[in-house]
Design goal:
Elements (H helix, E strand, L loop, with lengths): L1 H25 L4 H22 L21 H21 L6 H9 L1 H9 L20 H13 L11 H8 L1 H13 L1 E2 L3 E2 L11 H13 L8 H8 L2 E3 L5 E3 L10 H13 L3 H4 L2 H13 L17 H14 L5 H8 L1 H10 L19 H17 L1 H5 L5 H10 L12
Antiparallel strand pairs: 1-2, 3-4
Length: 415
């Protein structure tokens, strides 16, 4: 046991020394803080593994970030505004003459406040944005949330390209160029993207998907060129029973519904989904997603896993949008809207917020609440009557979201 611990310590020190030497060669003044930053990241990941280890890295890939969701950060702020937007769209669908609540929320806090909050998370040494003050350097996900919030301040849709020129107006030409360089530096050639340029973890499909969205924002031509399509497809894994899905990392031995969502979304951005996947492959992927549905109406990350509003939301989008369930009748049959609504309603707490999983002691948070609102929005499009027959409690949920907002900065905390 002692020998194993000593070997791991020696390996960690060797990696830090290599990275330190590389940074000294690039910029002699940055060596010490960057080494400290890497060490901090390793400790954070070890800590999160101890708290959330039972979920596994691939299944709940976002739970590492939950360690700092008790404060106001970029991803929780992104979730907060996406939740408001989803509530606004549900209201508009139910009452077409209702006002734009989401735009009203933005006007209340002033665009300049939100832009200033985003600016405060820029990483001056690496480019890109940190998700939280507790993270020492930029990440792909933090950068994605930052750009999404900047789009929100001018009413752009989430997947509508921002363009480098518009980003330059927000954060300056030099910072915009640094952000573009940072995203490109996270590419592990032939393997996919890592969350940071240090490549501490192996490339993941989640990070590759986010990078593709960022590259479109940053005016990188053909971000999903044929080589990247091949990389995305390399995450596909066929189950022994013939079903097909995507895994989040190539070292994983089973596909996951969340990773399958990232893979389908990435290919759809390239407008090559029809040619990248055969009809049989799409059918096998649909069968895998449906195998992740539980008796409670929700979807899990894997067959037999615990249902989650997050995975239920992703699975619905896959079935209705990327795999195109077909006519409204077939969509209702495949998605089984009433069963899905049962799961969503059971995930709601008395506060109006939603929990990630009913079976775990997580408190309600803005991430799960946003996912629940997106589920309701999609269910409205498939079976309006089934949704209107439920007591949605939108006003209480809206208040739950507002209670998590800082009026001065326009930011949101997660819990």
């Amino acid at each position: 046991m002692i020998l194993v611990a000593a070997a791991l310590y020696a390996l960690t020190m060797a990696i830090l020394l290599i990275l330190w030497t590389r940074e000294v060669n690039r910029s002699s003044g940055e060596a010490l803080p960057i080494t400290i930053s890497i060490t901090h990241e390793i400790l954070m990941r070890q800590s999160s593994a101890g708290v959330y280890g039972k979920f596994g890295r691939g299944e709940h890939w976002f739970l590492r970030r939950a360690l700092y969701w008790d404060e106001h950060c970029l991803d929780t702020t992104y979730f907060g505004y996406e939740a408001l937007k989803a509530i606004d769209r549900i209201r508009s669908a139910i009452r077409p003459n209702s006002g734009p609540e989401y735009r009203g929320e933005l006007l209340e806090i002033s665009k300049s406040q939100l832009i200033a909050f985003v600016h405060a998370h820029f990483d001056e040494s690496l480019g890109g944005f940190r998700s939280s003050s507790k993270t020492r350097h930029a990440s792909l996900y933090g950068t994605y949330c930052a750009l999404s919030l900047l789009k929100a301040t001018e009413g752009r849709r989430r997947f509508e390209p921002l363009h480098l020129s518009a980003l330059s107006e927000y954060i300056g030409t030099h910072r915009a160029a640094m952000t573009k360089d940072f995203v490109l530096s996270c590419l592990n050639p032939g393997q996919g993207f890592c969350d940071s340029r240090y490549h501490l973890d192996e490339p993941t499909l989640a990070d590759t998907d986010i990078a593709i969205l960022l590259l479109r924002d940053l005016d990188v031509e053909e971000p999903v060129a044929p080589p990247l399509v091949g990389i995305i497809k390399s995450f596909l894994l066929r189950c022994p029973n013939g079903k097909l899905g995507f895994r989040n990392t190539k070292s994983e031995s089973e596909p996951l519904s969340c990773a399958t969502h990232f893979g389908l979304r990435s290919l759809s951005r390239s407008q090559q989904l029809q040619s990248a996947l055969s009809c049989q492959e799409r059918s096998d992927i649909r069968d895998f997603i449906l195998s992740c549905r539980n008796d409670d109406g929700g979807f899990a990350a894997r067959p037999g896993g615990a249902s989650s509003v997050a995975y239920t939301y992703m699975s619905l989008v896959d079935l209705l949008k990327y795999l195109q369930a077909g006519s409204p009748e077939s969509s209702r049959e495949i998605c089984q809207v009433n069963r899905v609504l049962d799961h969503v309603m059971n995930s709601r707490e008395g506060s109006g917020g939603y929990v990630l999983e009913i079976s775990t002691p997580h408190p309600p948070d803005v991430h799960a609440t946003r996912a629940a609102m997106e589920i309701l929005r999609h269910c409205l499009e498939v079976d309006r009557g089934a949704v209107l027959a439920r007591t949605l409690g939108l006003e209480k949920t809206l208040q739950f979201i507002r209670d998590h907002r800082n009026e001065e900065t326009g930011s949101f905390r997660g819990f």
